[in-house]
Design goal:
By secondary structure, the chain is α+β, with helices and mostly antiparallel strands. The chain is built from 31 helices and 74 strands. A hairpin with a 4-residue loop joins strand 37 and strand 38. The radius of gyration is 39 Å and the shape is globular.
Amino acid sequence: MPVTSRAANSNSVGDNASTALNDALKLTKEVGELLGSVPYIKGAAGILVHILEIREKVIENDERCAEILDRVVNEKDNLIDITKNLAMLDHSAADGLKKDLEDYERILKDIERVLKEHQNKRGVRAKISKGLGRKKMAGKLEENERRLKNFHDRFTFNRLSKICNDLLEARIAPLQQHITSIVRFQSDSQQLSPCLLNTRLDIFEKIDHWVQMATQASIFLLYGHPGTGKSTISKSLEEKLARKISGTLGAVFFCRRQEGASHSARAFWCQIAAGLMKKHRSIALALASMFQNQFPDVESLPIEELVDKLIADPIRQGYKETQPLIFIVDALDEFGGRNPNRRLREEFITSLDCWTRLPSNCHLFITSRQENDIQSLLNDQPSHISTLEVGENATDQTSMDIRSFFMNQFQPMYREIPRPWPAPEELGSLVSKAAGLFIWARTVTEKIRDDRRFLKRAIQEHNSLGGLDALYTDLLESSISEASDIDLFKRLSGAIVTAKSSLSLSALSRLCQVEESTVDDVFCRRLRPILRAQPAVSFLHKSFEDFLTSNACPEKYRCNQRESHQWMCGWCFTILNSRELHFNMGGMENSYQMNCDVPGLKDNVPEWVGYSCRWFGAHLESSGLQLDDNVFLPDIRSFFSNKFFHWLEVMSIDNTPGPTIEVLGSVTRSISSLNTMRGHSSPVRSAAFSPDGQYIVSGSDDTALRLWDATTGAIIGEPLRGHSSPVNSAAFSPDGQRIVSGSDDKTARLWDAKTGAPIGEPLRGHSGSVWSAAFSPDGQHIVSGSVDKTLRLWDAKTGTVIGEPLRGHSKAVCSVAFSPDGQRIVSGSDDKTARLWDAKTGAPIGEPLRGHSGSVWSAAFSPDGQHIVSGSVDKTLRLWDAKTGTVIGEPLRGHSKAVCSVAFSPDGQRIVSGSGDNTLRLWDTKTGVVIGEPLCGHSSVVRSVMFSPDGRRIVSGSDDKTLRLWDHTTGSIIGEPLRGHSRAVCSVAFSPDGQRIVSGSRDYTLHFWDATTGAVIGEPLRGHSNVVLLVAFSPDGERIVSGSGDNTLRVWDSKTVAVIGEPLCGHSSPVISVVISPDGRRIVSGSQDRTLHLWDATTFAVIGGPLSGHSDSVFSVAFSPDGQRIVSGSSDKTLRLWDAMTGVAIGEPLCGHSGPVWSVEFSPDGQSIVSGSEDTTLRLWDATTGTVIGEPLHGHSLPVNSVAFSPDGQHVVSGSDDTTLRLWDATTRAAIGEPLCGHSSVVRSVAFSPDGLRIVSGSFDKTLRLWDAKTGAVIGEPLCGHALPVNSVAFSPDGQRIVSGSDDKTLRLWNAKTGAVIGEPLRGHSSGVNSVAFSPDGQRIVSGSEDKTLRLWDVATVFTTDNVHDHVEPTFPFLQRLQFPTALTALYPMYLREDGWVVGPHEELLFWLLPSLRISLRSAGCISVLGRQFTELDVSSFKHGTEWTACYQES
């Protein structure tokens, strides 16, 4: 019984161990491919498997040995731990552990040897001495088990883990630096003070309760007026969490208005990730272990993915504490700076949706002013909201806290004053006047500290200092009264208000050209209660900046921001055009160093010079000056003529390529007015053509509307001013005589479209922002929808409100629309309903259209007015009877995310919807039934959908950067995606005739497309410097208007666009195959762009247009022996014949293969064609008729990649994915002999020698092989030299040489007799080489590449450059050796690296080349680059190294 029990238990242990060991073997195999030292671990795993296999045969009934071996077999767990740790190490670190790993393997080998010895003694002799043998075996096993234990004590739990931790620690700093590379602002709280002890207890009690009750990742919103102490609460919370009271601090983001120019949603999340790494080592280690091989692409990762990879996943892996993680965002309303770009802030706040992706123990605390856009954007977030009340609503707790603040501030004065001061009644008066505003209390105490007499003034009832505006006015008038001082104040305060980044006292003085002592005395000392001088000059609270720019400020002190920008721009140019900006600003002694490798380089650039370089463009653009003003033109000319390269040097020292482009863009926009309708000072939110197409009206965040001449783009008259908040919408009446606008100021306004004068008073009636407004079809009425949950009807002529508000919605009204007959109105709301209203009476028609469970984002009448369709956040559409308001059928379900856009077809029979689930869906309007499957093609949110005017097509625009065309009838995709934009597509529109499409994108451009073919028309329309928010055709289709976040509109001539730019010469996708004609005069190429191109081999010019006819990539091309015809093979499964002279297709496609055709070749007599295909077969074709000859040639088991005729036309050779070559009889089509085996991977290319005696093959195993064509025997060893798969091989016409092309981006020449490599690799292509061929005279080689180019090479040069001056290739990796005159090449060879740097023979940095120049650069041996403008470099006067400063002579 005991024996059976042990055996059963042993089998169980053995089964479990076997499974685990197989997992271990799999793991070690994967890691072993990466690390050279892991083979020792692989060996150890193999030994453990063997021990497991023989243990049962050896130990029999020996319990002692069994227990020892069970423990040994459990070594699998340590094995897996070691392997996982090794996976984190690089080669050098892992190789350093080689000796230890050898010891580990040796111990397991000794255990294996003990078992083998005992196993070999089985039989008679073993039985005689089995007692002694077992005892001896157990002793040896115990000894080796002790050795294993010692090994782990010494290695696994100490040295290996320490090395891994050290490596991770070493990765943290550069990873953190990389993550914050796009962060160019400060976001800490160093300059803030916390709340006094035992104050704001009510707020902290609410925060504690929120944290305790939260069951998911949530947000706490603390709203408050300016000066209510929000930031001090944030500072106190930060300190509290740092002590781990009620939670643990995650990261903080204190928004600073003066840094707003650098704010972005992406930078915010990167800053949060960096803060987490700084405060939580375990999270930093988790993040470092996740990105061992390469850093995350923080510049282009989608925000959701960025949050997952940088924050959510590292928290899940690295944060093990029980307390929740609290993150702080203070002063959200300051995000984006002064006059923030609403789109920028909207993108940021919208990105907070990602908070729900974080673990449930992560919470976000936000403070902000209570601004409309912030409230509406955060409306749907899972949040707790609290408000700091002021005035009469200020709480008793707030008043007590302000009293405590006063007493704390006055405490230091008590020693100098004998009686209690201030008196209790005086203190009470101050508290009452503060009215909940801590900034009022602080400013007053600072003033009293300087002048105690101010106390009496502060508490006098008639003085009216209870408000901030009055207090600030009093401070200015009592501190700065002289005219000269006021002038200085306006200049300095304007500089602070408009500065794009913080300025120190010395920098501010130098910039404004004022003595530092004067600034300190007149400005800093006198205004100490409201101003901070260190470390940068800034006002203590942004409420003072708001006061300075408002009408509440006396005019003599008031800051005119446009005027201040003009001053700042002038001061910047004064510095830029002076000797303060000069050559070698960094004091670099050696040009071989990178800026980042020189310590203290930035310190050599004075702060005021750096500021002028970085921000002069922004001030120029904000100055409002036009080209005609001619103010800064002389400065601009002088700068670009004399100082431009010095400026570039400063920008490179600051390592700011993005801002460099921004500055140049600002200057370009400022000096160019072509097609730019410039007049708004903030982003344009709305634009519309008049019905006759003659005028455009626009509404902007700058609170104004503007009228424009749609033909000339000229501004008409003055801005239409009347609104006090951003204008959200603007529209013409149907007769074009009037304009209606809706604004965040809660009003709509009517304007005379001819004069621009307001008609009557504002249409007041709403108590919240007006989000939507529309004219009735007859132009007699207006309907508006508002955040106040109501609609209002207005008389369009008089502007008077008609009746009472249309009440019925319980949340904001998102959209409104009249029915086609003007009798009804439909509205959609955040309350999840749509409503119908009688347009005459304003009465609701029936009950709310209930059916949605989320906000109704879109609602529209059908063309006949009989139906309504609505789209909702609840992922559904609903159809409604427009007369009765009853829902028709069930919800239109099909989308898995919010419905973003809906549209009726022109005949009203169908509906199309676009959704956040990346799809479109078609619906039957009558039945509500979904038509067919989802229209899949986009890989991200579908933002916009539209029917063509004839209803036959649909266009969609998506966040995936593409547009797609769809067949309305079938729902099928038409053609490929319309690619051209580099960021999300925001807006699409068909032209009125349906022939063209225009799109606007976040990449700042518009694109035109042919609506029939989907082809892009001309070049992108560039001119905007921010997101293109809207595009629209004029009614006659002659013009397009675009509105942008860059505060401008642009008008474009839609006819001219079609002819802008020349057609691109060459291929637009990788070149797969090239061949030279038999007479050597032409080249034909085939590409993934589905076309062939003919080229003149002498002039290198393209001949005619592309040869179009295939519907997929062209993978193989060949000339007929007489050069009159071309054959091509394609992924569309067909071959095509072409007239080589005219480029015209000959006959119909040759159909017969069931898979892509990878290779084609003419027979030597031109009568036949052979093809090889993905379908594993070869086929023979009659070259004259195009008919197939016989049955397919079967023999390969995998796709056939390459085929070739022998010179006499009797045989065919083929190469296949099955790693073999096969020979075939061209007449009988029978296979000859067995497969030719020798390669270890896919055979990519085959070719016969000119005499037909040999065959050469190229393979994915990185080698070439030579074969005897008669016997099929391999000749010699493999030809090794390429670092990646060999794609193409060819013999020279004399059979003496072979050329090969590889994925390693090089060509190589080989001696065909000896197999020896000839010379150095031919470098020049920037991607893999797909095809190579010799010219008929053998003097040149042509190559085609993934980089979309062809290159011609001089064969003779390869021999020459290989022998000149005993040149030795460098050991560092490089893309190509540059071709210069021989003397220069001999003196100083230069190499182009993969990253675009040209380096010397010791990898010293020389200069960097743009990608557009690299691809067409002439490299050693290269004659020309086809399809690109040729790039040549003149380096005859090039200075570098320590002599680099000789390149510039001061004029």
